Amino acid sequence: MNSRQCKIAGIGIVAALAAGIMRASPHPAAEPGSGTPSAKSHFYWIEYKRPVKGAESVATLDAIFFVKIAPDRAEVILRRELETVVEQFAPDFDVMASAWRGNDDPVKEERIDFPDESHHLIYVKKYKQIMRWKEYMAKESETPAGAKTLEVVIDANVTPLENGMVRVKGTTNLPDGMFIWVQLRNSKTDFFNQAKVIVADGAIASEWIGENKASGKPLIAGKYELTVSMPMPDFQPDSVKKVIGKRAELMSGKFITVGNYGRELQYKRTVEVK
Hints:
By secondary structure, the protein is of the alpha+beta class. It has 4 helices and 16 strands. It has helices at 13-19, 71-89, 133-140, 238-244; strands at residues 44-49, 58-65, 94-101, 110-111, 121-124, 129-132, 150-151, 154-158, 168-172, 179-186, 191-198, 203-205, 222-229, 251-252, 256-259, 262-273. Strands 1, 2, 3, 4, 5 and 6 form a 6-stranded mixed beta sheet that branches. A 5-stranded antiparallel beta sheet has the order 11-10-13-16-15. Strands 8-9-12 form a 3-stranded antiparallel beta sheet, with no helix packed on it. The two termini are 41 Å apart.
């Protein structure tokens, strides 16, 4: 899907980004003599676009760089451009700003992430402030004063290897019906595979995990990194969101971090497949 074609159907800016719906595509493929920005004509190009239907609360600002540039320098330029937009246009909505490595083929463009791994900068109208995206998400996912939180508990492991496959099983206090991912990775053998799990009665029980059909990499005996993570709260059932919060702001504990989509679940341990 092209980058900046915003087609958001009421699921919100953060959910749209996570789903890959809201991603910018700077321009159509360049044609000789068309005047379309390209590496032959531009060092970089700025595009400030109005909010679109389904995302009326946010405009987009994109900087497409046709020269090699370090992430910190791209951030400096993008921030200056965003400051100019705020100063000159006084937007009555949020403005999400992104930097891209340009390509005459827009499908091949790459987003430039900033030194803190933020995907974007954003001007937030209600705070009247420009923030890095992760800074914004940390603020948005702060636990409300006096709110009851869920200190997440997880204990998971793999079953014995059987016909080249294992299952991930464990216990947790995550709410029933919650959608999580269990992942197995071995960097030495370049193996990765995952399975979707729905928490039920405090139990984690995956389907069989074996050979990665896409890569052809088999699951063999050895040590693996087992990860338990979750998609954004926007994609969880309402019953789960009531427990964990809109931005997972009601989740706490050593397995909870703040990322580009709010609070995130990151349980990791080394397991032995045998």
